[in-house]
Amino acid sequence: MIRRLFAAVLVVVLFAIGTPSSAQTVSLPFRVYLAFEDGPTDAYTPDILDTLAAFGARATFVIAGGQIAGHEAILQREVREGHALINHLWEEPGVYAGAPDQPVIDSYVRTEAAIRAALGDQLSSYDAQTKMYWQPGGAAQPLPFIEGVQVITYNWNVNSDDCGWAMPADLDLNTIAFDQAVVQNVLGESVSVGSFHSPYNVYDYGDGVIIIFHDLNRVTGRVLPVILSELSAAGATFEALPRPWDQVNTMPVRLGAPPIESGQGVEGFTLGALTTEIARLRAAPGLDAPILTSVPAETDLIAVGRSPGWIEVSYEGVSAWIARDLVTMRGAIPNLPLRPLSG
User: Fold this and answer.
1) What is the pLDDT of residues 87-115, one digit of tens each?
2) Torsions phi, psi of 131, nearest 5?
3) What secondary structure letter does DSSP report for 20?
4) Are residues 197 and 313 part of one domain?
5) Can you tell me the distance from the alpha carbon of 28 to that of 332, in angstroms, rounded to the nearest whole number?
């Protein structure tokens, strides 16, 4: 039954958001960082670990201290299979962003002690990992100073909203429609709304994107194979935090921060693209530029460059520009070469 549900979700999602053809002519990293928050749990974490293993994926588990007792074997398995652990404090009340320093410090120290006590023969592997911290609800500032403690404070770029906090009220968590909405939040156009959700997807952030899930409900296990399948097809690899460029005693990701638009990209990098509706192709990036032609929805294009709000494409041997919100791409969009607005 579960496998049939996975297949049904996959068919519905791919039909809804399309599958642009691959066109990558330059091989570049597309590292995706999956984080699973609030576990471990007997009901859901082992299935998530099984799915990650099936895809050869490494991930990061954001550990709630109050969940550790009785789940020591799961914690050990996470480390043994190459995943990273992040200190998520003991429990959420009283330590959200803006909480006084001392309760946060006390909760961090208590949780770190519990993680270490639970790991048994995997403790040395955990000690080899960079220490990390993830505040409940997301951090507004790095972990307060603790003598002898050096950590990277993490937040997410893309919120799957697999718990449904920001989903439309008419979406039932027990339906395929809810699963599809979670997949859309990660891979397509956002369904969730509000401050806890980003309007940008994995492809908008590209290499280094961090996605938050939870391993305390059954939604994540249902959608994870769909998400891993599509991202794998788009050339993604799945790594455990920290990212190579992140430094201890910093908070490299700020909640709600949009993708970096100023990166220069790489000449020769291209992506398959698909129009989402009838679209005009223009001679330059701007609504005042001459219209070269119009194309129907679901027209295959090759994306070859970008400017803010616009994508440079190749269509039938002609170079043209299309508004960013009229085209779907599956790959690390920031890798596309940045073009000056003057064209």
Assistant:
1) 999 998 999 999 999 999 999 999 999 99
2) -80, 140
3) P
4) no
5) 9
Six-digit token string for 97: 């962003």
Q: Residue 48 belongs to what H/E stretch?
A: helix 45-54
Q: What is the largest CA-CA distance in the chain?
A: 67
Q: Tell me the two tokens of residue 87.
A: 């200190």
DSSP states of 224-278: HHHHHHHHHHTT-EEEPSSPTT--TT-----TTPPPP------TT--EEEEESS-
Please give the structure tokens belonging to residue 151: 């950590």
Q: Is the pTM of this model over 0.90?
A: yes
Compare 341 and 161 and report the one with higher pLDDT: 161
CATH at residue 306 = 2.30.30.40
State whether 150 and 222 are in the same domain. yes
- In degrees rounded to 5, what are phi and psi of residue 295? -130, 150
Per the rule left: phi > 0, alpha: psi between -120 and 50, beta: everything else, 306 is beta
| Domain containing residue 197: CATH number | 3.20.20.370
Distances (CA, A) of 306 to 250, 270, 336: 30, 10, 6
Which H or E run includes 203? helix 202-205
Please say if the pLDDT value at position 297 is more than 80.
yes
Query: Could you list the residue range(s) of the whole structural domain that residue 302 is in?
Result: 271-335
Provide the token pair at 280.
């005009």
Residue 176, both tokens: 């395929």
